[in-house]
């Protein structure tokens, strides 16, 4: 066996000889279709162990061409640096493996060129589907995939050429805004609206959250002035620069802030700390997206947690049922979590803060 391996590439026939089974069984285990062929898990384990011991690696692209499909599923994510996208990637991998799929995930940094490059690379590897998460131009990815027969599903940001799974951003933002306004009710005698900061001015999620932001103000008879909306992007440093410009223009920081991501939240908190904002005058902050540590920071009155399990479950329902309707959008309600009020006279350590559903 060792002499044979030195002279040529190891084949499934060699592995079948080692294990004492058929080449068909070896092929089914290595390409992930063994359960459909009613091969026992014990035999599958023996074949995989033998393949590892003999240094065998399946040629996935060639195998995909022979089967006209592959067991590879791809995901594009925009960032790794917050809990939301990290949780999406982790659940996606777990659910893909449950289906005998091999997951490939790549981070594209909200760069359209990197998104296209990633899609082309995945297509060349014969992926069966690409899940475009938070893509800047999901319809472009769908256009690239269609000629190759590769399915696409959009997650987090919707498109019009493939089914999309998104959070109900409007309702989540309206509820969060109402929560902040309620907390600062005694401090808004001047009629000033909350300050909205973060996000991109033209993406679907920010537009929907702004719509909910305005609706919640209207429900209490308030209007939002244009200079109180700062869609400065998501990066922490951009939030700090936007706040600098807001104050430099002669504006007073309002009693409440709506922060449009946990990444932006980092910039807001850093900006407030750098200016040694006093406890009595610091604004109350609500954030769309959830971080357990950020929820414990004094001044955080509420956070919206997007329901990652239900979002990714919906993606795989579309995948399993082979749903391809271009215009289908599935909206998943997010969860609003309100931070507990600190008791008067006690320290502001995290242990003094609780959470409850609004």
UniProtKB/TrEMBL annotation:
Which GO MF terms are attached to this record? Answer: DNA-binding transcription factor activity; transcription cis-regulatory region binding
Any idea which UniProt keywords this protein has?
DNA-binding, Plasmid, Repressor, Transcription, Transcription regulation
Q: Which Pfam families match?
A: Peripla_BP_4
List residues of the HTH lacI-type domain. 10-67
Q: Which InterPro entries match?
A: Cro/C1-type_HTH, HTH_LacI, Lambda_DNA-bd_dom_sf, Peripla_BP_I, SBP_2_dom
In its keyword annotation, does this UniProt entry include Transcription? yes
Coiled coil, from the record: none
Q: Where is the signal peptide?
A: none
Q: Mind telling me which PANTHER family this protein's record contains?
A: CATABOLITE REPRESSOR_ACTIVATOR, LACI-RELATED TRANSCRIPTIONAL REPRESSOR
Name of the protein in question: Substrate-binding domain-containing protein
Native organism is Lichenicola cladoniae
């Amino acid at each position: 066996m060792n002499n044979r391996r030195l002279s040529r590439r190891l084949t499934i026939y060699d592995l079948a000889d080692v294990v004492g089974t058929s080449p068909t069984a070896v092929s089914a285990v290595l390409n992930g279709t063994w359960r459909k062929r009613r091969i026992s898990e014990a035999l599958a384990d023996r074949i995989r162990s033998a393949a590892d011991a003999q240094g065998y690696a399946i040629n996935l692209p060639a195998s995909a061409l022979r089967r006209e499909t592959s067991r590879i599923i791809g995901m594009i994510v925009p960032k790794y640096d917050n809990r939301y996208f990290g949780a999406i990637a982790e659940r996606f991998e777990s659910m893909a493996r449950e289906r005998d799929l091999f997951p490939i995930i790549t981070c594209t940094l909200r760069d359209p060129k990197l998104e296209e490059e990633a899609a082309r690379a995945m297509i060349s590897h014969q992926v069966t589907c690409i899940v475009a998460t938070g893509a800047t131009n999901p319809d472009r990815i769908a256009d690239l995939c269609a000629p190759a027969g590769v399915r696409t599903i959009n997650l987090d940001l919707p498109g019009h050429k493939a089914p999309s799974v998104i959070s109900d951003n409007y309702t989540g933002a309206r509820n969060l805004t109402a929560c902040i306004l309620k907390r600062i009710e005694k401090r808004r005698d001047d009629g000033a609206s909350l300050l909205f900061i973060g996000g991109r001015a033209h993406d679907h999620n920010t537009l929907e959250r702004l719509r909910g932001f305005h609706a919640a103000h209207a429900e209490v008879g308030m209007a939002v002035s244009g200079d109180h909306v700062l869609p400065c992007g998501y990066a922490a440093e951009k939030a700090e620069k936007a706040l600098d410009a807001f104050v430099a223009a002669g504006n007073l920081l309002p009693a409440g802030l709506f922060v449009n991501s946990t990444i932006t939240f980092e910039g807001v908190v850093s900006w407030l700390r750098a200016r040694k904002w006093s406890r009595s005058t610091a604004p109350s902050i609500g954030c769309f997206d959830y971080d357990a540590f950020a929820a414990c920071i004094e001044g955080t009155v509420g956070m919206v947690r997007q329901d990652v399990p239900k979002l990714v479950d919906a993606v795989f329902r579309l995948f399993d049922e082979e749903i391809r309707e271009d215009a289908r959008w599935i909206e998943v309600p997010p969860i609003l979590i309100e931070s507990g009020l600190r008791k008067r006279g006690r320290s502001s350590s995290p242990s003094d803060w609780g959470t409850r559903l609004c």
